[in-house]
Every structure is written in C-alpha cells, then in structure tokens.
Amino acid sequence: MNTQFITVTAVILMLFSGNKLAGISEKENTVRTEASQPVRTVVINANDQMRFDKNEIRVKAGDRIKLTLHHTGKFAKNVMGHNFVLLTIGTDVAKFAQAAMSKKDTEYIPSTGVIAHTRLLGGGESTTIEFNAPPKGTYDFLCSFPGHYAMMKGKFVVE
Q1: Mind listing the pLDDT tens digit for each residue in 111-127?
Q2: pTM of the predicted model, to two decimals?
C-alpha cells in the first residue's frame, strides 16, 4: 500500500512540476527546438528518356534534405529503373557505375562511395528519403541503373 502511494505521489508531482524533476527546463526544450536543422525539400523527376529534370541541386551545409524522386515514365523498373545516388567526394563516377552493374541484388548500389540513395523505381512510382547535407563541397549524383549514369547525372552543391 505504501509503495503504491509513493509511486502515485511521484507521478502526480512529475505531472504538475513539468519537466523539472527530470532535469529538463522549458528553456532547454526551446534551445533544442531552435537548434533543429532546417529541412530543404528537393524534388527530382526522371523519365523514360533517361533524363533527370535537374542537373544541379544547391543546398546549405547542415540542412536536413528531404528528397523525392518521381519516375514519370511508364516502363517497369527491370527495363527502365531509376534511382538517385549521392556519391562521396572523390568517388570515380565511371568506376562506381561499373561496380553498380553487378549489384542487381542491392538495386545497383555498391557498398562504398554512397552518402544517400533512393530505392530503384519503375514508371509511375515515387519515393522520398531524408538525409543530412554533407560538408561544403561539390558532389556527384547519378542514376546507378546499368548504362544510365552517362545521361543521368548532376552536381549536388553544398554551400
């Protein structure tokens, strides 16, 4: 009986005293909210002619990126699949694309050289990913479906 009374009393005290018992003040909650990363929405369309509608994307360092890829074509992903792959600085695009060709089981995504990527899409599909913008610099992005990187590529500029 005493244990229940003490537990109930502790819960009531916590509810009526806000977060102070937990060691978190209202001011600390505000700081965390103000320090949250801005979200930058990016939308890219890919089509059956093996083209992205953007060849350059500009973001700010520290931004949270919400990237949506739309495959606006009609062909299935096994024939005309598209994805978005953001590469690390210094990754050789041609070598990466060559390695991707043998990675059908991972939707043509090699295990190295990748900052972020979407899943492989067929015509009419869309997907959204979120990731943190990498440090300032210019990064390559591409579609890693076999043979697409030559036409489906661009620069991801972090300022």
Answers
A1: 999 999 999 999 999 99
A2: 0.77
